[in-house]
Amino acid sequence: MNKKASKILYYILMTLLAALFMFPLVWMISSSLKPEAVIYNDLDSIKALLPSGHISEWFFSYKEIFGRFDIVRYMMNSVLYAGSVTIGSIAVNSLAGFAFAKFDFKGKRILFGLMIALLVIPGETIMISKFVIAQKLGILNSQLAVILPLMASPLFIYMFQNFFKAIPEDVQESAKLDGANQFQIYWKVMLPMSKPAIATVGTLSFIMSWNDYIWPLMVLTDSTKFPLQVAITNINNTQPVYTNQVMAILTISTIPLILIYVFFQKYLVQGLSSSGTGVK
Q1: How many CB atoms lie within 10 A of CB 217?
Q2: pLDDT surpasses 60 at 171
Q3: Distance (Å, whole) CA 40 – CA 127
Q4: Integer Cα distance of 9 and 15 in angstroms
């Protein structure tokens, strides 16, 4: 097979793969823009992927879902949780990564090895332990119970550690000669050089928190504190259930993730592929 044929086959396969992944998203959005009955009437045709032919019907399901449920509150809760987790995750994991990369202390290798070993342990297996800790701290049914456990991540610590470790020691030594202490080196030198890592950890933290369902469901009993993902389940179980309204709330919950990825895609790719020198 010549080079041109291989390239054509590659693009065909990529197009088919993209269509496969895009199909549920397109169907979800189009279903949210048409009446309930039309969704089922169009299932056996290409019209299933198209919105209603009447523009006046496009946002009827959104108007209805906002009228039936306090969607704005749920969205604000999700923004609060995701924003707090993102900021906290960058701060906590970058500090830990800086310590592992630039400090020498007793038991460092063992501690770092144990932390890396945590990467192979599914998060679901330690949920009960986290719940017990949250209960003993007295933070159940509060925003802190949702935010605090998501701030630290072995993967993000490893990413920052790998990034900081690749920065030449001469940079740190030059800062010391200028009179900077360790925190000033971290804050004024290391962090500005690690923007791709910050963007990567921030983006992944936001997505992880925004999509989190099981943990908020476990620690929250007050429905006014539910994030959007937990509220979606309640909406889906509240009679009467309308498919177009369910698709509307799912579309609302998906749009922020798409926007985050579109705007931070460049930094996300750099952060995942960077050698950690801070020089691009």
Answers
A1: 14
A2: yes
A3: 40
A4: 10
The tokens for 76 are: 């604000």
Q: Encode pLDDT of 230-273 as tens digits.
A: 988 888 888 887 888 889 999 999 988 888 888 877 777 776 66
Q: Is the pLDDT of residue 96 over 70?
A: yes
Residue ranges of alpha helices (H) inside the chain are: 3-31, 36-41, 60-68, 71-102, 108-117, 127-137, 143-147, 154-166, 169-177, 182-184, 191-193, 195-211, 214-219, 228-237, 243-273
CA–CA distance, 198 with 211 (Å, rounded to integer): 20
CA distance linking residue 30 with residue 237, whole number of Å: 22
Cα separation of 166 and 210, whole Å?
Answer: 31
pLDDT band at 216 (very low <50, low <70, confident <90, very high): very high
- Each as own residue / partner, the long-range contacts of residues 255-258 (CB below 8 Å, 24 or more positions apart, any chain) are 256/210, 257/207, 257/210, 257/211
> Model pTM?
0.85
Token pair belonging to 113: 């090895």
Half-sphere exposure of 218 (CA within 13 A, CB side): 18
**Cβ pair 161, 100 in contact under 8 A:** yes
Domains of the chain, each with CATH number or no CATH: 25-58 (no CATH), 70-273 (1.10.3720.10)
Percentage, residues of the chain above pLDDT 90: 29
The pLDDT, as a whole number, for residue 274 is: 59
240: left (phi over 0), alpha (psi -120 to 50) or beta: beta
